[in-house]
Write a structure and sequence with these properties.
single chain, 327 residues, Tyrosyl-Transfer RNA Synthetase, three-stranded parallel β-sheet, two-stranded parallel ribbon, 13 helices, 54% helix, 7% strand, binds adenosine monophosphate, binds tryptophan
Length: 327
């Protein structure tokens, strides 16, 4: 079975966009691959974090993914910082990565521009990501488009290392979901629904109060035509609501258009709100059930036990090949 691995940064509460565009896909993948899923907490400190908030976010994100359908029996789930080999492997890889390569990373260019003073961790971030991936010989790495360049760098580093020191790493491939629908902001449906949006009214978060969710959907920007028709260019607001309805109910766009052919926008929005709230309520109930249970700790204990062994082996192999041994 091919291996799949992905990391999740414990920053911001995940949105309906993340759920439809990424998590639902991952739930599908877990049946097709040997899956590794970890919280990339070491990556999150490349920008300032409040320690108390950080530890709360790590736990909450884990519980939320499991509540969304990530099955602990089908995924090896762990916390990156608990596995010391990631940072160790990262250093060995850093010394096989060029300054020029890291300087070309577009995420670094964007993020460093936004801060007056940024750390060297922000610069070397992609190498730690390569370590995460290469330690497990992952074949596939599902990521958003913004992370594709980092996975390509991991490939380049792996190819270079294999050439220099002999066959050590599997060459990973990014897995960019083509079918995942892009969910747009409810207030400005021409831009992506995003965790970091300034206007909260446009973004549905999975832990929002359901009454707030209903208000946000009822207040979504539409148009003056009053026909429920899929036309993303001329009717971005209504098309976005159709996409949301379709992703949750698995109904086709044309079936949705027929179903609501005589409805006004108010009626349509009410039904969209109903299905979204129904889905999110199930997630929230599951979340509340596990957030303070022992289950999370058991899952993490199991995950770290397995992954530490795998990463340790890879680290020892690398060290040996690089000449770190007593002779
Ligand atoms: P981000 O929240 O930008 O770190 O993205 C995490 C994952 O969620 C990536 O795979 C994104 O492609 C996906 N994602 C984020 N926002 C949306 C959205 N509005 N619609 C669809 N997918 C999204
Ligand atoms: N950098 C990724 C992000 O911000 C998270 C991440 C860290 C990751 N290590 C990874 C993703 C390894 C895939 C594989 O989304």
């Amino acid at each position: 079975m091919k291996k799949m691995l992905t990391g999740l940064q414990p920053t911001g509460v995940i949105t309906l966009g993340n759920y439809i565009g990424a998590i639902k896909q991952m739930v599908k993948y877990q049946d097709e691959y040997e899956s590794y899923l970890f919280i990339a907490d070491l990556h999150s400190i490349t920008v300032p974090q409040d320690p108390t908030e950080l530890s709360k976010n790590i736990k909450s994100l884990l519980a939320l993914y499991i509540a969304c359908g990530i099955d602990p029996n089908k995924n090896i789930i762990f916390i990156q910082s608990e596995n010391e080999y990631h940072a160790n492997i990262s250093w060995l890889l850093e010394c096989n990565t060029y300054y020029g390569e890291l300087s070309r990373m577009t995420q670094f260019k964007d993020k460093s521009k936004k801060q007056v003073n940024f750390t060297s961790g922000l610069f070397t971030y992609p190498v730690l990501m390569a370590a995460d991936i290469l330690a497990y010989d992952a074949d596939y790495v599902p990521v958003g488009v913004d992370q594709k360049q980092h996975v390509e760098l991991a490939r380049d580093i792996a190819i270079r290392f294999n050439k220099k020191y002999g066959d050590t790493f599997t060459i990973p491939e990014p897995l960019i979901s083509a079918s995942g629908t892009k969910i747009m902001d409810l207030v400005d449906p021409t831009k992506k629904m995003s965790k970091s949006s300034d206007n909260q009214k446009g973004v549905i978060r999975l832990l929002d109060d359901v009454n707030v969710i209903r208000k946000k959907i009822m207040g979504a920007t539409t148009d003056s035509e009053m026909i429920v028709k899929f036309d993303p260019i001329n009717k971005p607001g209504i098309s976005n609501l159709i996409n949301i309805y379709s992703a949750i109910t698995n109904m086709s766009i044309s079936d949705i258009e027929s179903k609501f052919s005589t409805s006004n926008y108010g009626q349509f929005k009410r039904e969209v709100a109903d299905v979204v709230i129904d889905e999110i309520t199930k997630i929230q109930n599951k979340y509340n059930e596990i957030i303070n249970s022992d289950t999370l700790n058991e899952i993490l204990d199991n995950g770290i036990k397995i992954t530490r062994e795998i990463a340790k082996k890879k680290f020892e192999d690398m060290k040996h090949k690089m000449g770190f041994m007593r002779v």
